[in-house]
């Protein structure tokens, strides 16, 4: 893959921030620190924010139709509970703005098979039997490119696992601009993969990402866990025989310890270096309870607000309806322009 940024004329439109979370069940601490908390921090950065619930992406693997709408509301509730203000940020369900699917088709014809063949997430998610995976799972990253480019988003805050999809988005944008002789039409969006917790690891295995698909519930902290469960998971989290590291000590051979320090730093809005300096030489008997207290006090208000909102689906639905209308206000003129650029018939 080549990065078109070196040759393409610069995009000159306004800054826009956009991201999405799949509507596929329980959110965990990785989603909170790698995504939700970061979105909230960007809300007042001067650029409008678009946060959607990726329900079209969710159905690339089987979703129970009886649960999908509730899962969508739950992600919307998590956005609001994490501090996003629906009056400032546009929060909406992806499937409610039909231009996502329309642009995805057009970009499917821009993206190359060879580019998609390299996507590691498809390889991980399709497993041993890739011929049984849905075609949607394969073209998933193209739909993601459509999500981003439909709003001409310039910045996309995500966790580390989305880096490759963002690179693909830039390649698709560059190829569209070149193929259709529309220099600078789509921006080449910047991934914002920042902060101490861009890749939160499992509490049981420092080599595995914290993920909703891990069969062990002990491996992750769910946003729906109560205080006792959170504290117990942290107390039982895997560490090693050593003590807390000294500043400057390399931690590559202590991934579990490195992960807990990163979580502490991200939750407290401090740097890993500051946390290391504070706890250097102490045992985990001192560090783990401090981390458990911090996790409980940080997550409790989010969890409580999520529960309150989930008990009031009408309020969430109002936010989603209003968000979808505002999102379509940006997306519809862009898809109309794209269809013109591609040369489709127009009345
Ligand atoms: P998903 O639930 O897969 O739609 O992911 C939603 C967001 O959470 C994306 O920005 C991911 O990059 C981020 N994310 C998911 N898992 C982790 C993790 N373990 N650490 C940091 N960020 C994560
Ligand atoms: N693929 C992302 C994930 O699993 C979710 C997503 C879909 C997304 N569309 C997006 C993220 C557009 C950023 C921008 O985490």
Automatic annotation (TrEMBL):
EC number of the protein: 6.1.1.2
UniProt keyword annotation of Protein biosynthesis present: yes
Residues involved in L-tryptophan binding: 147
InterPro entries given in the database record: aa-tRNA-synth_Ic, Rossmann-like_a/b/a_fold, Trp-tRNA-ligase, Trp-tRNA-ligase_bac-type, Trp-tRNA_synthetase
Gene Ontology CC annotation, any one: cytosol
NCBIfam families documented for this protein: trpS
Entry's family note: Belongs to the class-I aminoacyl-tRNA synthetase family.
Function description: Catalyzes the attachment of tryptophan to tRNA(Trp).
Protein name: Tryptophan--tRNA ligase
Organism: Brevundimonas subvibrioides
Gene: trpS
């Amino acid at each position: 893959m080549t990065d078109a940024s070196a040759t393409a004329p610069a995009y000159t439109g306004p800054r826009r921030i956009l991201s999405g979370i799949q509507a596929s069940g329980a959110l965990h601490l990785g989603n909170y620190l790698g995504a939700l908390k970061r979105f909230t921090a960007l809300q007042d950065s001067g650029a409008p924010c678009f946060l959607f619930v990726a329900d079209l992406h969710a159905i690339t693997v089987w979703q129970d139709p009886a649960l999908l709408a509730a899962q969508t509301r739950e992600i919307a509730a998590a956005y609001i509970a994490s501090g996003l203000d629906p009056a400032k940020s546009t929060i909406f369900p992806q499937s409610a703005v039909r231009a996502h699917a329309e642009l995805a088709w057009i970009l499917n014809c821009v993206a190359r098979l060879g580019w998609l063949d390299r996507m590691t997430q498809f390889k991980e998610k399709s497993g041993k039997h890739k011929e049984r995976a849905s075609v949607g799972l394969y073209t998933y990253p193209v739909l993601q490119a459509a999500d981003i480019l439909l709003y001409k988003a310039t910045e996309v805050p995500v966790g580390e696992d989305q880096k490759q999809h963002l690179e693909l988005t830039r390649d698709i944008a560059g190829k569209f601009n070149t193929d259709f002789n529309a220099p600078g039409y789509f921006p080449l969006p910047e991934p914002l993969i920042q902060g101490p917790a861009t890749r939160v690891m499992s509490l049981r295995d420092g080599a595995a990402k914290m993920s909703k698909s891990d069969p062990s519930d002990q491996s992750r902290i769910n946003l729906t866990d109560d205080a006792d469960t959170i504290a117990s998971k942290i107390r039982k989290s895997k560490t090693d025989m050593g003590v807390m590291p000294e500043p400057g000590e390399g931690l590559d051979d202590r991934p579990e310890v490195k992960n807990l320090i990163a979580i502490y730093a991200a939750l407290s809005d401090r740097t890993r270096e500051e946390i290391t300096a504070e706890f250097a030489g102490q045992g985990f008997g001192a560090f783990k309870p401090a981390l458990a207290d911090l996790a409980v006090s940080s997550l409790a208000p989010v969890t409580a607000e999520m529960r309150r909102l989930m008990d009031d689906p009408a309020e969430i639905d109002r936010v989603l309806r209003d968000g979808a209308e505002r999102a379509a206000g940006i997306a519809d003129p862009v898809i109309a322009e794209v269809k013109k650029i591609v040369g489709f018939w127009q009345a």
